[in-house]
């Protein structure tokens, strides 16, 4: 039998071999690009095209169900920059002090929470302002916070942020830079898992815009927020910074980090 006749569709064995290989390739594509992605899909993944894109390595954009259609793809409506808050004014701090009277039940009379909610005293004004804006816009979900801040104007939120930033929390003011005995994830992160060092952003000495200081916060609050970022239940971090940092954390690592920062 000649080679030409062997590799010819007139040869029924060659024809069947090609057909079987094509069927296997088609079935593998269906499994890898359709069935597996949809079986492990997020709630937001609805279309066949989105499943195929996910399997090919193109993740679906963040969608916030409570937001208007044209705003869903953005994690925040706040443009973060080093000058986003402008200069501090005494009048702004005074107005913020008046507005903060409505916040004392949860955040304390001087911004230090007795109830396990975040300490606001000593936090960068830009960090407090961004979170307030995200609560109002719905980019950060909270059944408790949103009704309390929904009627605040932009200036009200700036005033509140300026007031809390003006309060000195002794624990934060005295905290030293990261020491050698700090947890490895705090000092160095874990590059092999694409986890950055916590201290590179979250430190009283880092001074990054819109980034909160974690020292002394409630262990329960920190644990809940890290878990929410890891699991995708919180998504108001710009450029997915926190979600990328937390996605590889184990439950035990979340507990250790929360305990470390709460004790400082």
Summarize the structure.
With 264 residues, the chain is an all-alpha fold.
Helix percent reads: 40-55%
Major β-sheet annotation: none
Q: Care to count the β-strands?
A: 0
Report the CATH superfamily of the largest domain.
Cytochrome c-like domain
Rounded to an integer in angstroms, the radius of gyration calculated over CA atoms is 26 Å
Do you know the CATH topology of the largest domain? Cytochrome Bc1 Complex, Chain D, domain 2
Tags for this model:
Cytochrome Bc1 Complex, Chain D, domain 2; 48% helix; 264 residues; mainly alpha; 3 domains
Describe the structure.
The chain folds into three domains: 3-60; 90-171, Cytochrome c-like domain (Cytochrome Bc1 Complex, Chain D, domain 2); 174-263, Orthogonal Bundle (Cytochrome Bc1 Complex, Chain D, domain 2). It has helices at residues 3-6, 12-39, 48-55, 90-99, 104-107, 125-137, 145-149, 154-166, 170-174, 184-187, 219-231, 241-246, 251-263. The model has no long low-confidence stretch (mean pLDDT 83). Helices cover 48% and strands 0% of the residues. The chain has 264 residues and is mostly helical.
Note the topology.
Blueprint: H1 3-6, H2 12-39, H3 48-55, H4 90-99, H5 104-107, H6 125-137, H7 145-149, H8 154-166, H9 170-174, H10 184-187, H11 219-231, H12 241-246, H13 251-263
